[in-house]
Write a sequence for this structure.
């Protein structure tokens, strides 16, 4: 193998390694994006659950206040 052939082989191998590195970096970046998206979805789901829980608690408290603590209506007819 002469020096030119050896240099060409080395360049070819370098290009292959660079391409593989680029693929690996892209895959890693994609994984980070997916992880961030999952975290955002989880956070949004929690926010919805907390908002729904807050709405249910507020509605329940309003009903209790309107009907009395025992759950019966108070008649104030005179």
């Amino acid at each position: 193998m002469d020096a030119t052939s050896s240099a060409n082989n080395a360049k070819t191998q370098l290009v292959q390694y660079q391409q593989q590195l680029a693929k690996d970096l892209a895959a890693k970046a994609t994984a980070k994006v997916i992880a961030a998206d999952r975290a955002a979805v989880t956070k949004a789901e929690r926010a919805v659950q907390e908002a729904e829980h807050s709405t249910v608690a507020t509605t329940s408290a309003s009903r209790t206040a309107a009907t009395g603590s025992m759950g019966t209506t108070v008649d104030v007819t005179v």
Observations:
- The radius of gyration is 33 Å.
- The chain has a mean pLDDT of 83.
- The first helix runs from residue 3 to 67.
- Residues 38 and 49 are 16 Å apart (CA to CA).
